[in-house]
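User: Let's play a game. I give you a shape written as tokens, and you guess the letters that built it. Ready? Here's round one.
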């Protein structure tokens, strides 16, 4: 697993890993590392390697789709409770949540943990901020975020949220009109 995490640090390695179905394998392995007999210290290295590999893959278009398709958001959310893998899991969520399809799912699965980590000072908090700003681009995810972070805390930790992208804010229908000369 550590070797796969290292291989996915270059584009050729990412392509090879995606062609071999590595994201789905990493999601399954990470899930296994969260349950007995690997829960706790015995699975620590496994959780870190899986999270690192998923983090590398999450910054490539095909990788994001493969992680999402494999149920990776739920496993990454669970890895947020794993002290040794939390930074890599947040990093993976940061990559995946740039995709529209993953914003709401990430907020639903990981919102509570992300907000808790956001409130702890340090680099993980900075990455949680980035994930939460990504998910806040989705109107339903933004509503969930408001449930976790009251306005005063949201302003303090995230700053002013940007306007929703146009494809979420409005739908414009231009009626067809006949030619009239």
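Assistant: Ready! My guess for every position:
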């Amino acid at each position: 697993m550590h070797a796969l995490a290292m291989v996915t640090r270059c584009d050729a390695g990412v392509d090879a890993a995606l062609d071999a179905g590595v994201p789905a394998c990493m999601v399954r392995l990470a899930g296994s590392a969260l349950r007995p007999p690997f829960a706790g210290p015995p699975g620590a290295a496994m959780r870190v390697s899986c999270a690192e590999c998923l983090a590398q893959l999450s910054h490539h278009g095909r990788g994001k789709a493969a992680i999402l398709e494999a149920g990776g958001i739920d496993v990454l959310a669970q890895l947020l409770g794993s002290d040794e893998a939390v930074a890599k899991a947040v990093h993976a969520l940061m990559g995946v949540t740039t995709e529209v399809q993953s914003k709401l799912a990430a907020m639903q699965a990981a919102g509570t943990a992300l907000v808790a980590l956001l409130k702890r000072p340090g680099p993980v908090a900075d990455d949680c901020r980035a994930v939460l700003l990504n998910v806040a681009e989705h109107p339903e995810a933004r509503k969930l975020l408001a449930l976790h972070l009251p306005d005063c805390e949201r302003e303090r930790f995230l700053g002013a949220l940007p306007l929703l992208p146009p494809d979420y804010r409005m739908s414009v229908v231009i009626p067809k009109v006949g030619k009239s000369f």
